């Protein structure tokens, strides 16, 4: 097919207003490259839209996605930044054009709360390359780097909104990587943050993904919002183990340490996001490969895993809790069929009517009838499982991987499937998406479980990893055998492929067997929750994480840090952990909240494949000759620690000090003007915080001025402070911004070093 710089043809009338630059595809596909007979035959048979809407739907699917982003960060920062977009960039771009055609400026996404999400109808490539949009693009890149802006597809912003997460909620994100929705959930948990200080929510966010590499992407992505309430695990969500916590955690209490024997219970969640792996045909606008590769067996093959993940989520939900199931697929087999099947298997849940929420979000009701096919060429589709089975040649029915669960249940109407939401690309110029909001209404009646002997119970719990049948073990993508490579499913970047099970993966019947066994296992574990936790032992050879060890709050290191860093007695020193097998405070100290601590203390970290917990706040700094090594507050930890720093010890400074900080890596005291010179010289070597009030200064044109700048020592000032400034020639603006993550700082430092051809060495504390 011709890909030689040809513009592809447009669709025919009825669709939203066509926008010239929006027609400009990065890879110049022909319209004929964006056709797939199987896709058309299948979706026409599903009646996902009316006949008149079919062409507008296809037409929208063929257009590139607009650039969309969300203003993130604390409320204060978000509103300041939003005003900047409104007052500076929208007017600046109101006369922009591309190839002679006027381009409308960015507009607020009408359904996103507080107007904090934006859409710009210019494909990324144009935005990046065209000089007319360069300033705006630079702005987006800078703000994204420091976590103030999240470039996220509009539809991907929807599921977390329906979860209504509050800071005290225990939240689980079952299939979280690469983490754009996790970031949203984390922001909701941190709703009480200010522009310069991170709150410590009493809830927690447990983000999980079965793909190890993607789990690390998730950790990287969430480093933009350093949170003591975040933990990341790397497990198969369909078989997620029971997590035990003290019963006191439910009430948000921290059990008094003197109470030796704590009543234990299973950690249940207030909110769960099930953004499951899917065939991703709603992402065709950006994952163009799907046009060629699409076939219905992808969705058929994923159905069973999707049911098992949703069902496991439902089992881990509190009464009155809420679970959101979402995919970026248009396929009812991956959507309504999954929800219907899970509702059947997990009584006590209902689909919530959310039609009054986000009224500006244009959506269509879930389907109550659909016609699966068992044939990848879509030669035929069937209204019922019985009809499908009857169509199979004699003797082949048993071998078919299709199950009754792929088809609409007889009680589709009474299940309220129309309360599910279908988002179609032609409605509001987005990707395709599916969302269902489920709530747990009542506790399902417990099936009696034959109680094993005490010994049996204990053995089961102690060797939970060993005793799980092979089919129920966490299916990690690395070792999945029953799988096929599917190009770019939902959430995957265009370069990534995710392994998804094919139709030969366990069907609902075997899924049911696994689920029943998991339930029995839950019962056993829950019944024996009061048992003393086992010491951590790594049980999986590919799990290489170091253990998590909390320091006693009277540990010398901690008491030293408290006094040297002027931390107030309110600092939660009992929630500080280290990450090495010896439990020594060798280099870095991490802070968690009480909820995360409770999970770590009462569960084997290797069993739950805990990959990250809390946030790094302090790091050991080697000192110069004759000086002791000290812990310093890390740039990325400053916002978390700041509320616990004695405000009297924060030094006030002005733009002159800032200028010195920006010019030299290691300025000496003499480099500063008075009165700061004397003030800084009076301080002993160590980690100090200085505050520079935001303001516009003509002689130093800087765009982003933080309120707080950290100095590593009175004499050697921390490089982190430099990393937080960005110089732009114009326009001068003043914004209080969050600090970049350590990864971003490292990247900036590395780039800086490369430029200078120098090898970085950490400066030591130096005397004047
Ligand atoms: C649609 S993506 C999630 C996107 C993510 N929620 C976001 O907003 O960035 C689906 C994810 O599920 C993960 N996954 C696949 N099978 C899984 C399983 N059995 N358990 C947990 N995660 C799984 C994939 O690795 C992939 O990262």
UniProtKB/TrEMBL annotation:
Q: Indicate, by first and last residue, each region the UniProt record lists as having compositional bias (Polar residues).
A: 491-501
Region described as Disordered: 1-28, 442-546
State if tRNA processing is listed as a keyword: yes
Q: Where in the cell is it found?
A: Nucleus
List, from the UniProt record, the residues annotated as the active site of this protein.
Answer: 328 (nucleophile)
Biased composition range(s): Basic residues: 1-19
A Pfam family recorded for this sequence:
Methyltr_RsmB-F
Q: In what ranges is there compositional bias, type Basic and acidic residues?
A: 469-478
Please tell me where S-adenosyl-L-methionine binds in this chain.
175-181, 209, 236, 275
Keywords linked to the UniProt accession: Methyltransferase, Nucleus, RNA-binding, S-adenosyl-L-methionine, Transferase, tRNA processing, tRNA-binding
Q: Superkingdom of the source? A: Eukaryota
* Ranges of residues in domain SAM-dependent MTase RsmB/NOP-type: 57-441
UniProt cross-references to InterPro entries, sorted A to Z:
MeTrfase_RsmB-F_NOP2_cat (IPR049560), MeTrfase_RsmB-F_NOP2_dom (IPR001678), Pre-PUA_NSUN2 (IPR057285), RCMT (IPR023267), RCMT_NCL1 (IPR023270), RsmB/NOL1/NOP2-like_CS (IPR018314), SAM-dependent_MTases_sf (IPR029063)
Is Isomerase there in the keyword field? no
Mind telling me which PROSITE patterns this protein's record contains? NOL1_NOP2_SUN, SAM_MT_RSMB_NOP
| Family to which this protein belongs | Belongs to the class I-like SAM-binding methyltransferase superfamily. RsmB/NOP family.
Which PANTHER family would you find in this protein's record?
NCL1 YEAST -RELATED NOL1/NOP2/FMU SUN DOMAIN-CONTAINING, RNA CYTOSINE-C(5)-METHYLTRANSFERASE NSUN2-RELATED
Name it.
SAM-dependent MTase RsmB/NOP-type domain-containing protein
* Natural source organism: Hohenbuehelia grisea
